[in-house]
From TrEMBL:
It is a multi-pass membrane protein. Residues 79-382 form the ABC transmembrane type-1 domain. It comes from Skeletonema marinoi. Keywords: ATP-binding, Membrane, Nucleotide-binding, Transmembrane, Transmembrane helix. This is ABC transporter. Residues 421-658 form the ABC transporter domain.
Amino acid sequence: MNSQRHTKTIDEATDIELGDVDPISLKDIPLKDNTTAASTEATGSGSDAGSKEEPQLESTPPTFFQFLLLAKPELPLLLFSFALLIVADISNQLLPIIIARAYNALVDPLLDPSDRTHEINFTMMLVFILTLVGAVLGWFRLCIQGLAGERVVARLRLGMYKSVLSQDMSFYDETKSGEVVSRLGSDATLLQGSLSSGIPELLSGVVRAIICIILMFYLSAKLTGMTLGGVFVIFFLSFPLGKCLKTLSRLYQNTLGEAQTRSTEALGSPRTVQSFVAEEKELNRYAEKIGDPDKSKNWWPAASDERNTYEIGFKKVMVNSSFYTLIFGGGFFFLYLSLWYGFHLVNNGELSIGDLTAFQSYVFQVSFSVGQVAGNLARVYEGIGASGRMLYLMNREPAIPSKREDDDVPLEEPEHMDGRIEFKNVSFAYPSRPNSKVLRDFSLVIPQNTTAALVGSSGAGKSTIVSLLQRFYDATSGSITIDGHEITDLKLACLRHNIGYVEQEPQLFGFTVRENLLYGVTREVSQEELERVCRDANAHDFIDSWPEKYETFVGEKGVKVSGGQKQRLAIARALLTDCRILLLDEATSALDSESEALVQQAIDKAMQNRTVIIVAHRLSTVMQADQIVVMDDHQIEGTGTHEELIQSSKKYQDLIRRQSVMIKPITESFSKAV
Ligand SMILES: Nc1ncnc2c1ncn2[C@@H]1O[C@H](COP(=O)(O)OP(=O)(O)OP(=O)(O)O)[C@@H](O)[C@H]1O
């Protein structure tokens, strides 16, 4: 059942509606899926997830041309800005040759003073006009480039986010959210810088250098020959430094990503961090990746076992400074060398003084352009590296496909579901632990509108069954059907719309109560209906007691509501989706007895006229179920009603005995007290 991954276009990523995200064809970009590679290695060696290294979100970087394809939808804008760049550069580079006329007029013995003044004024007027034209065109060019960059990066961010949202659970098992956030943030910014300014500046440098070299040849072929030799020396010396800068930049980004992963984890669980007084531990974990300048006795970073951004950043600064010193220092060296030779040419009458000044200016421009090309080449490489990581995320094909391999047969989307569930010989191993079977030959029929309770030892696979029914993962073998439809033949959205799911720790979002309740609802819901459902879920009274009632903000991840309130809101949220099947995964296990009673009442109402699967540890919550399934060692040990299992299932008897032992002293002391 495991589907093969292959590359895809952004618009194919998912059937989740995301508005108009323009498709960018990335089919030609080959990608190495390192996550899959890591899994394969694990399979090969028979090792488990715990022993393998964290997979890196990285793919083979695209070629320069493939990288340019990312900006394909903006090609007209970019070509226009390129045309502006050429015109602006030609008009700017003509200036030294025009100014040379003024110099020559100054020293021309044949001109009388009024002709000389006229020549100088005419020349300088021309200079001002061309400067103005160059400035206006340059302004347009920068605006257009910036706009194109914003458009490309916004599209890429949306495409990447869309793809990440559509991934299967094995992706989330393997990937740290901090890393994805880093891809959306810093990698996208690097890529934007590279596309909107790195490549245009690189092209601008090339164009300017070519124009200057042509004009230099026009002024003096001899002097140009000598000067270009120097320029090439600078270029070749700076090349390895540029490459080194590229490697350091990639390392810097990866390390920053690792630091962000750590900080996201800690900031996402502030209560756990503070209750374990682990602030310093978390700070140290973050500092390991960021590097602490105050830990070194010197002003440079101390050597450390772990790669950190401070240390890499320091090396980057060193290489960057050497790079620019070489470009500008070398540029000036060859400028003065050519000036020296130029003086001799003027002395010999082979060059006018005006042409020598113009030439000087071109030498400087060419050195500057070479520096600009090399510097921006490093930036483009940074962008290419970043795009490799982003493309991995965008092109990753979810293991749970949103359409059939045979595209011609559409997935089924029944208008109504009765809710008869059947598991037939289902076996399953998590993709990250392919050698540990979590379910073995699991078979179970749950008739429409009945309740099945899954009980058994911890780790037996109860929650996994709930995950498989929602297709968070696909079974390794066997079949799961609802009303006779294989769930793999159903449209994923249709399947999940028909299933309501209440987790042990339901997640609320940082919205209002109303927005949280209507999270999965696509139809109009009136206030009366909302209140009725919340009453059924025992949630209306506490919502109504808050000053802002249904408009109350619940805080990030619902931190401002209690565990029991969260559960009841989650039940109401599930009910509002009109689900035919309700999955309750340990919905009351984390609650005190008073909250449990309130939630249990809500659950009892919610179970009416629905097919329900309850995963529970407390037997008191499942005794009324139509059938109880006892799980042991990843398979079914017994099935039946409470009364039947007490007679037939050793495991069930064990579970009852253990819970009675726990409750007995409490009930005895209670009886004595009253
Ligand atoms: N995402 C995952 N990746 C790899 N292994 C997993 C994953 N989730 C669960 N497991 C493993 O699968 C086995 C079954 O887990 P499951 O959560 O289904 O058990 P359970 O019966 O619900 O346990 P409990 O009652 O403690 O919640 C366990 O050994 C667990 O470590």
